Amino acid sequence: MSRKNSSALRAAIAAALLLPASALASQGPGGGMGTASNFTQIAMAVLVYGASALIVAAGLIGARRRR
After folding, report:
1. For position 56, what pLDDT does the model report?
2. Under 8 Å CB-to-CB from 52, ≥6 apart: which residues?
3. Is the predicted pLDDT of residue 15 greater than 70, yes or no?
4. Which residue from 31, 41, 45, 59 puts its CA 20 to 30 A from 25's CA?
5. How far is CA 31 from CA 15, 25, 46, 60, in A?
6. What is the pLDDT of residue 1?
7. Helix, strand or coil, per DSSP, at residue 26
8. Cα(2)–Cα(15) distance, rounded to whole angstroms?
9. How far is CA 12 from CA 9, 18, 28, 29, 65, in A?
10. What is the rounded average pLDDT of the residues 13-39?
11. Mean pLDDT in the chain?
């Protein structure tokens, strides 16, 4: 694995680990009800977890293609 690919993989992993934390942060302290409506909380969770899944999937597909 080249240095460029290695740094891209590390960046993808870091993003995948940080995105779910921002979904919980958007829901208020302790993951309970915050000031956002239920719809907004669900929409944020879908966006954040969906983006995280896309990043992981893209990384896995890229790793698979290199082999």
Report:
1. 92
2. 15, 16, 19, 20
3. no
4. 59
5. 20, 7, 15, 29
6. 52
7. coil
8. 20
9. 5, 10, 26, 27, 16
10. 61
11. 74
Q: Give me the count of residues in the chain.
A: 67
Residue reference for tokens 């309970």: 32
CB atoms within 10 A of CB 38: 8
CB 51 within 8 A of CB 21: no
| Chain centre to alpha carbon of residue 65 | 22
The answer to whether 66 and 20 have CB atoms below 8 angstroms apart is no
Q: Answer whether 1's CB lies under 8 Å from 11's CB.
A: no
Percentage of the chain surpassing pLDDT 70? 52
